[in-house]
Amino acid sequence: MTWWAVNAIVAAVAIWPFAIEALRPRMTRTRREVAPGQVTTLSQGVTHYQWFGPEKGPVAVCVHGLTTPSFVWGPVAEELVDMGYRVLTYDLYGRGFSDRPRGAQDSAFFLRQLDDLLEDQGVGGEITLIGYSMGGAIAASFAAEQAGRLRQLVLLAPAGLGHDLGPVADMAVKYNFLGRWMMLGFYAKSLRRATEAERGLPSRIDRMVDLQIAETRLKGFAPAVLSSLRGILDEDLEGAHRAIADAGLPVLAIWGEKDDIIPLTCKDTLADWNPQAKQEVIPDAGHALTYTHAEAVMAAMRKVL
Length: 305
Description:
single chain, alpha/beta, 8-stranded mixed sheet, 8 strands, 46% helix, 15% strand
């Protein structure tokens, strides 16, 4: 084999993941036409959101996690509405029907989106802020900066206290070009395989696995996940949780007993950083507790809401 053939093969391998990403279907206006809820243009791009429940009810804002958009809140939102809450859910940038802006997805990036959305929707007064997985890190960061705007903070399997997202994600964070190459080339496939393994789990959301897999096929999804891994999920949130404790903000943290992504040992870390936080463990629940154990999650939430 000649040197030019070897170079051609190496070049093809090097650009393959980037070419695949470039050819993925984009989030477009046409795709958004079938979206439930509404969209609004904020300072960093278009954000998709939904309101549920009575207009005069106390407001609960739900922030989803790293890979699953706002549809993950369906069962929880239904239960909150039954309790009289006015519930706002939205898609983080890079997920669902929201835009895929480039740049670092650190806490400042996500807090700006949440701030923008609350202002855009005219949300005033105290709110209940609920964060799931990476959304827990976003919610905690927001609460640390603006505790006075919150009535209470609820964290479901929250990130920011330790996590295990697998070897592909770990390498993607550690190595710059190689990490991006691996993320674009292998992460979607790895996530689809992991999601398929959950097909037998009980779920309050119809076609949950299919919805998650469809998300991985859109342009901008993998880069957004990588940016979040290198951004907010790589930040030290000890200061944020200690600031929340100093502010005296009521906090409830709910954990899955068998969560292999946000391990139960994180419960002890939170207890150290915020001894006043109330904590509940859902028996036999994994990381998907918002839709596999929605009733148990809501039973824990009703104790404080």
